[in-house]
Every structure is written in structure tokens, then in C-alpha cells.
Amino acid sequence: MDLQLRQLRTLVAVADAGSFTDAAAILGVSQAAVSRSVAALEKELGVRVVERTTRRVEFTPLGTRIVGQARRVLAEVGVLVRMSAERQELRIGYAWAALGRHTRRLQKEWAGVPLVFLQANEPTAGLADGTVDVAVIRRPLDDPRFATAEIGLEARYAAVATDSALARRRTLRIEDLARYTLAIDSRTGSTTLDLFPANAPPRAVRETGAVDEWLTLIAAGQAVGITAAATAHQYPRPGVAYRALRHAPQVVVRLAWWRDDPPRHLNELLTAVRRLWGGSAADNGERAGSAAEDGQRLGEEAGDRLR
User: Fold this and answer.
1) 103-136: per-residue pLDDT in tens?
2) H-type helices in the chain, by residue range?
3) β-strands 225-228, 204-207 pairing
4) Nearest to 95 by CA among 132, 68, 67
5) Model confidence over 39-79: pLDDT tens digits?
6) Which CATH number fits domain 88-307: 3.40.190.290, 3.60.21.10, 3.20.20.10, 1.10.10.60?
7) In the chain, which stretches have pLDDT less than 50?
8) pTM of the model
9) Which of 81, 138, 204, 221 is packed most tightly, with the most Cβ within 10 A?
């Protein structure tokens, strides 16, 4: 038998995403590659793992058990990776945005081992399978295997098409987005429907699998989005304007790591990041707003060049 870790990761991605298409977006490969990987795994095991339909995949009872075992195998492999020879770098994972405008400054001022930022669009941002040593988390991580520490707060911004009526306003309220389709990533994004008043929900919800898909929908005027300030700074995009959301709750930003195996230099990293973010909640919000304004300006300039 010649099972490969890549096949197990693909199977778990299909289980988490619910379809081959969404799993492909998460993994950054083609849908055909996902299908081939699952088929190869089924061939090696000699059993049917998934039942394919036109829209979703359903796991067989045995397939459900195999997915659970695959998660355990990948977690154990992650432990082995972390236990390997001393690393010459500290890997920091993120799902949507890293540390926003603080990312570059941290890399320049950091005096320890090289910092490497890696994007992994899954709930632990690469922690679970050992891809990274520390993860930037912007949504609750309810998994007892991981410890977390708050490092700052970020303002929330709306992302809208530059040619929409919403883009002509300097600030918006969440209620202003109610009559539009809302694009969200319910697996890794920081936006939930709880942000909307009960009497003013979005017109419809469009699930997305990655930040690029999210931005493409918004630039085309097919949806609006809500995001943290770091996204506005890290992803200026022609056709997308970021607007401050008044009275919206701030996003709590945390670092996460394996509880029983904290990485070297963790304390130094926490100290450095918190110093960059600032001490008080008010200061955190002000700095986050400034970051998003920079991203907003860049996005608008890019959009202007195309018009």
C-alpha cells in the first residue's frame, strides 16, 4: 500500500469544504487534481470513501471513519515535524491576513531567527498539520490542543465595489449592507451573521473559499464583504474600496500555538507583536483604523487607474 500524506490532506479538505471545488480552492490546486487524489486513495484502500453528486460529496460510513483517522495521522505528522532537528526559522501562519501593516515592520525589527509567513486557509492556519509554529487567529479557536494569547484589536471595514453607491460614502454602518449579498468564509473568516441586526440581515449569503475569490466577487459588484483592518492593508485590489464601519465590534487578534509544545522564541514574538500593536484597546482600534485607511487609499488608487 502506498498512501501519501497529500492524499490524506486532500481527503480532509474535501470533508471540511463539502465539495471538490471548494477543497481545490482551499488547497490551491485544480478540481481535477482533488478528484484524482481522492480516487487514488480509494484505489489504494480498496474501498469507496465518498459518494459523488453534482453539487456535494457524501462520505460513506467507512469513509467518515477514514477521515477521522486521517485527521489523527496528520496531527501526529505535525508533531513529528515540530520535533525534528532545530529549526532555523519561525513559521507564522495566517488564513486571511498576517499582521496587517505591522507585518513588514516586525520582519525588519525582528532580531531572532528568520520569520516566515505562510498562508493556510483552514481554521488553525496551518497549526494542526505542523505547517507552521504559530498562527495568527481572528476567530475563536475552540480546540483544547492549542493555547492562544491576545495581541491586539482591529477595526472592521466594509469592502465594496468602487463603482457602487456605497463607495461614495466615507463611512458605513452594518445596516447599510443589508440589501446586498454578503460574501463570507464561514470556516476561517472573521465575519458572521451575528454582526447584523435581527431586523436587517443581508439579502443573501455567498460562501467563499479564499480571500482572492472573496475580492473577485466584490470587485465585480456581485457581493459586499466585512473584514478586519489587516485585510484592507494587505489586499488593495483594483475595483475594491474599503470603508470604515461605524459602531461595529472590533476584531480580536490572537496568536495560537500547540499547548504542549510552545515554539522557541514565543515569548519574544509575543512581546514584539504587542509592542507594535500598542497597549490599550483604544490605541489598538486607532492603529487598526489607520492601517485600513492606508489599504483603502491604495485600493482606490488602483481602481482609479483602471477607470
Assistant:
1) 999 998 998 788 999 998 888 999 988 889 999 9
2) 5-17, 20-27, 31-45, 61-83, 102-109, 211-219, 229-234, 266-277, 281-306
3) unpaired
4) 132
5) 888 888 888 899 876 567 888 889 898 988 888 888 878 76
6) 3.40.190.290
7) 85-86, 279-307
8) 0.68
9) 138
Strands 90-94 and 134-137: parallel
Residue 234 is placed in which grid cell?
A: 494587505
Task: Please give the single-letter amino acid code of residue 246.
Answer: R
Alpha helices, H only, 171-280:
211-219, 229-234, 266-277
Helix (H, G, I), strand (E, B) or coil at 150: strand
CATH class, domain 5-83, is mainly alpha
Q: Determine the residue type at 278.
A: G
Q: Which amino acid is at 73?
A: V
CA 144 vs CA 140, 165, 254, 260, 264: distances in Å: 12, 45, 15, 10, 20
Whether the Cβ atoms of residue 129 and residue 77 lie closer than 8 Å to each other: yes
Give pLDDT, residue 286: 37
The domain limits of the chain are 5-83, 88-307
Predicted pLDDT of residue 21:
84
Paired with 279 in beta bridges are: none
> For residues 214 and 183, is the Cβ–Cβ distance under 8 A?
yes
Using DSSP's 3-state secondary structure scheme, residue 177 falls into helix
